[in-house]
Amino acid sequence: MSNTLMRRGEMNGIEVARSAQNITMNFPIAPIVFSSCGSFLGLAYLLKKKSFPKYLKDPGRRNAWLWRNTFCSLIHSCASAVWTFFCYYDEPKLLGDMVNTTTNLSIQLLSFSTGYFMYDFLDVVLNDGFRQVFILTHHTAVITAFSLALTNERYMGFGVCALIMEFNSIFLHIRRLMKLVNHSSGWKSINGVFLLLTMLFCRICLSCWMVRWLLQNRDLLQYSHYVVGLVGMVIMTVTNVGLMYRLWMSDFHKKSINKKVLSEIKK
Length: 267
Fold this sequence. Notes:
single chain; mainly alpha; 10 helices; 83% helix; disordered N terminus; TLC-dom; transmembrane; membrane; TLCD; TLC domain-containing protein
């Protein structure tokens, strides 16, 4: 009798373990993706109705849209940055095994971010046409890579690692919001320092490291997945380098030139 009960207990334990694994592997992805996309569309609509940007230095139609779009992007960056931290806290193996390790948090994070990038792609095309080619190319690469990871239930660690870049995006979006409202104070300089540091480490160094990881571990990936990942990371790396160059020229190089001009005038 006791042996029978023990066997039943073991079988129940196995069933519970299997059901827990199925919860992780069969997590509802599509509802999160479309809920995320719809939520950001709803937020942008509410911001448009509320007419929040009262202090824009140039309250034109495009600047008002840029303010709304950047505010929504800041919400995504803050949420994704915190979410990424908790993904690694919950399962550190996501960084060690970026192919096979999968958790509920990582699935939710990639689904949430895929929905956001879908929203942002639509928002940019509908309100700004194809003027921001770099942004649209970047979003296409990210949506393709994340969709591949979610449908194959693999590469979650790689996707979470890519979202470390959102730490830098926080300061990028704050910078744009400050420029739109013509905000000039000590906070702008502080944000500029964090922007430059996170740009260097969370974008440039990280994207180069991820390209190197793909090249070294190509045998772990299916060839088609490897090509998609490599092309996506090359696009992101080129975009990040271009972003770094534009940031340096507009914020730091320009300031050094202005200082030289002022010093010459004083002489």
